[in-house]
Amino acid sequence: MTKDKFLNQLNSLLKNIPKDEREDILQDYVEHFTFGLAEGKTEDEISAALGSPTQIAKELLANYHLEKVTTSVTAGNIFRAVWAVFGLSFFNLVIVLGPAIAFTSLIISGWVMGIALTVTPLLVIVDAVVHPGAFLLYHLFFSMILCGIGYFIMLAMYYITKWATNGFVRYLKFNASLVKGGLTNDK
Question: What residues form the membrane-spanning segments (predicted)?
Answer without folding.
Answer: 81-103, 110-130, 136-160
